[in-house]
Design brief:
Blueprint (H helix, E strand, L loop, with lengths): L16 H4 L16 H12 L5 H14 L8 H13 L3 H13 L7 H13 L3 H13 L6 H17 L8 H14 L6 H13 L3 H13 L6 H12 L5 H14 L6 H13 L3 H13 L6 H13 L3 H14 L7 H13 L3 H13 L6 H13 L3 H13 L6 H13 L3 H13 L6 H13 L3 H14 L5 H13 L3 H13 L6 H13 L3 H14 L5 H13 L13
Helix pairs in contact: 3-4, 4-5, 4-6, 5-6, 6-7, 6-8, 7-8, 8-9, 8-10, 9-10, 10-11, 10-12, 11-12, 12-13, 12-14, 13-14, 14-15, 14-16, 15-16, 16-17, 16-18, 17-18, 18-19, 18-20, 19-20, 20-21, 20-22, 22-23, 22-24, 24-25, 24-26, 26-27, 26-28, 27-28, 28-29, 28-30
Length: about 575
């Protein structure tokens, strides 16, 4: 039931958050008085015919002040219409200010619709906690939340979780799911928009299994999925290794069983998923299908193809797609992401001059290089053995106002070691430690590998012990670095001990671990242990790699009468 504003001293105050919101609008304090019925009718009719556009916002604010002078006072529906127009124009702070102003003048908010608008604006401004405060206030003053209220809260939780710099804040997913349960408990029927918001949030958090479970629940409660539903799930699946197969299965279900027409986003998600898996033929086939049915490629589709070709070092095809993109004109202009893919690709194949030409081109087109642009270029120059140029780019990057990220530091550390500048690498590493950066296992792996290659095994051992004490989760890659380093120095007993420690630390040796250790044994002609561990590999079904096979062949060639290793070449 809609209640009216009562022009009296307010006894029920809004939650304290209202006074903490600092966004205010410069309202006029002396609006013209309107008393005659005809003028009043014209004003209210004008409000009802307003369109939600930027121009209408300033008019709405003016109308709001004029409404405050009307006698009798306008009904709450007219104020809600005004607030709704401002909110739909995405002037959320202004809408909140209008509601605050009305309340501060002594008019008691007693309408669910008004509070729904307020909750929506707060959620859109990523103030979902305050949205919950308003929800609590509704219950306190005896107003029953509607489906719209709970839909808004659920949507808001997902908006916040996707916009925050950390992607997901504490409790965002559980909060959205809890709102969904409350809707069902109150016999309210959540619509597909609410389900889509929660599905999208779950998938972006990597909880694809939970998202699929919720998707199947939609069928139970007779909420029909739409193209957005399938796009969320397909994107979540394609983000997992090998998940493209299930993604294709959902695509087929969407088209064949549900009769839902895929949009350009659906196709772009699949193209991107194929490209990340290196399935370029599938990606090209999907693009061909898009063209045949008249779906125009967008920037995301082109960028996915370019990135896919660059990842496989197929730079000529990447450039061909780039040229097609440029010819599309205004509707599909290359972005910073496009240039970053190409620059990274050229740096991977050590064509740094072409990468630098692209840097000049993107700057000439008014695009600002970001931290990923500079990181690729710095890595490229280290790869071609030009550390001075790489360090100059690092300085230029900072001069341009770009703050190096952890990935940048990792590229520089790795490059310094590859160029045998280990003392500079150590200096940078110590500086990173003192800066308070939360160093991840990638950084420590680079340091361990560099130390081992420089023969500084004692330093590497100390660092590994520190990493274990720190509680960082290490996988077989880290252990294999150390095993390889110990084998390189002929410390085979120590390397064997690390193989045992891997098991104790919940990380059983993999095929790479055994291959690296066997290679160390063969180089030192430790035949007995070589045979032992080759047999272990055979029993576990681990194949010998190219380097191990080469060492075995070399041994057999030098010892033609000894065919003890012949069987292991068949592993």
């Amino acid at each position: 039931m809609l209640l009216r504003f009562h022009r009296r001293a307010s006894t029920t105050r809004l939650h304290p958050f209202v006074t903490s919101l600092s966004n205010t609008h410069p309202f006029s304090t002396s609006p013209p008085s309107i008393s005659d019925a005809a003028a009043r009718t014209r004003l209210l009719n004008s409000i009802r015919t307003l369109q939600s556009a930027d121009a209408a916002v300033s008019v709405s604010v003016d109308f709001f002040h004029r409404m405050l002078t009307l006698n009798p006072f306008p009904c709450i529906q007219d104020f809600n219409l005004l607030f709704g127009i401002v909110a739909k124009s995405q002037h959320f702070a202004t809408a909140i200010s209008l509601i605050k102003t009305l309340h501060s003048l002594g008019y008691e908010i007693a309408d669910v619709c008004t509070l729904n608008i307020l909750i929506n604006c707060l959620c859109r401004l990523r103030k979902t906690t305050l949205g919950f405060a308003v929800l609590g206030l509704m219950t306190k003053i005896g107003l029953e939340p509607t489906l719209v209220t709970l839909n808004t809260i659920a949507n808001g939780l997902c908006i916040v979780s996707l916009q925050c710099s950390n992607v997901w804040g504490v409790g965002d997913t559980s909060g959205a799911l809890e709102s969904l349960k409350k809707m069902v408990k109150r016999n309210l029927e959540p619509n597909v928009v609410v389900y889509n918001a929660i599905l999208d949030g779950l998938c972006k958090r990597g909880l694809v299994g939970e998202a699929l479970g919720l998707f199947y629940e939609m069928g139970v409660v007779n909420v029909e999925p739409n193209v957005v539903t399938y796009n969320c799930l397909i994107q979540g699946l394609c983000g997992e290794v090998g998940g493209w197969r299930e993604g294709v299965g959902l695509f087929n279900e969407m088209v064949a069983e549900k009769g839902i027409v895929p949009d350009v986003q659906t196709f772009s998600i699949l193209v991107n998923g194929f490209c990340k898996e290196g399935l370029l033929l599938r990606a090209e086939s999907m693009v061909g299908f898009m063209i045949r049915i008249g779906v125009e490629l967008n920037v995301v589709t082109y960028n996915s193809l370019i990135s896919g070709y660059c990842l496989r070092n197929r730079m000529e095809e990447a450039v061909r797609v780039f040229d097609l993109m440029v010819r599309e004109g205004e509707g599909c202009l290359p972005s910073v992401v496009t240039y970053n893919s190409l620059i990274h690709g050229w740096c991977k194949v050590k064509k740094v001059n072409k990468a630098m030409s692209l840097l000049s081109e993107m700057v000439g087109k008014g695009l600002d290089p970001d931290v990923f642009t500079w990181t690729s270029l710095i890595g490229g120059f280290f790869e071609v053995g030009k550390p001075l140029a790489a360090k100059e780019l690092f300085i230029t990057m900072k001069d341009q106002g770009q703050v190096p990220i952890l990935q940048t530091c990792a590229v520089v550390l790795d490059g310094l070691y590859k160029c045998w500048l280990d003392s500079e690498a150590m200096t940078l590493f110590r500086a990173m430690e003192k800066s308070g950066l939360d160093l991840d296992i990638v950084i420590y792996n680079i340091m361990l590998d560099g130390m081992c290659k420089m023969g500084k095994l004692n330093d590497a051992r100390k660092l590994l012990s520190f990493v274990l004490v720190k509680g960082l989760k290490i996988d077989s890659y880290t252990w294999n670095i150390m095993i390889k380093g110990l084998c390189r120095e002929g410390l085979l007993d120590d390397a064997e001990e690390l193989l045992r420690k891997m098991k104790e630390n919940g990380c059983p040796p993999n095929k790479c671990s055994y291959n690296v250790f066997v290679q160390g044994l063969l180089r030192k002609y430790d035949i007995s242990r070589s045979r032992k561990y080759l047999q272990i590999m055979k029993d576990k079904g681990f194949p010998v790699d190219a380097t191990t096979a080469e060492l075995l062949i070399r041994f057999l060639s030098a010892n033609e009468e000894d065919n003890a290793f012949q069987e292991f070449l068949q592993i």
